[in-house]
Amino acid sequence: MNNPEDRTRQPPSQQPPSQQPPSQQPPSQQPPSQPPRGQVLGSRLPAARPGLGSGAAPDAPTLAGLAREVATNSGLERKDNGQIDLLKAAGGWRGIAESVCPGLVFVVLFTITGALNVSLIVSLAVAVVFTVARLLKRETLTQALAGLAGVVISVFISRTTGEAKDYYVPGFFTNAAYMAAMLISILVKWPVMGVIFGYVRNEGLRWRQDAGRMRAYRAATWMLIAVMGLRLAVQLPLYLADQVGALGATRLIMGLPLYALGLWLAWLISRPVAAEDPAAEPASGSSTAGPASAGTTTP
Asked: Which of 40, 204, 206, 216 is deepest in the core (most CB within 10 A)?
């Protein structure tokens, strides 16, 4: 006769799942594990975000990336002799032609013929030709499109008002906007020329920690502000006096040539002071360094 206790003492493998220990139950039938202390059931602790909680400013990488992008888009490069490549900064000879020719054609035609519509149409056509030429050669269109947009706005304003002098109105607002942006950059201690020249010289943003370098780049930015201000001081009186020919000539002279001069002077006055021991050579023998790893700057 079977013992009643034998029926109740079944091996664990033969016991119903509800009576088996949790460790021997199938995974789908095991009770959920208890959450760690301090964690609410059904929620997960958020993963640590890079840069937070480690003492690093969360916006530092963003500011550095933005500064690097501004410097890259400026088109400035340093030549082997330590000077900036002004020709490349202007977009090369083609970039100079794209900037100068539409305005030159306009002022010459209007001075000779006095026909506003013809002068406007030919000026716009020249800008379109440059843009199409770049498009056909599959070259970068940034500078050409910027120049075309400027010419379109100038033509539209002049055609709307019927005044040839209004062809140059957008330039006044452009100069004023650049002056305001550069002035703000100085006030917030991020001078534009420091952002641009700093990466060209392999300084990165380290110059912001040096009071002397900060002063130098503020002076360099003031130099470009002076260039923009000089344009307005000379050209606005000619605009108010309806001197279209003189206004067009000064716009050409005080365009790229004056800008290149101001840029060169800004580069010179912001040059870092030479090392006290110029004969000292780096251990690796390298004369240049990238902005991320360099501890030295180049003039």
From this structure: 216
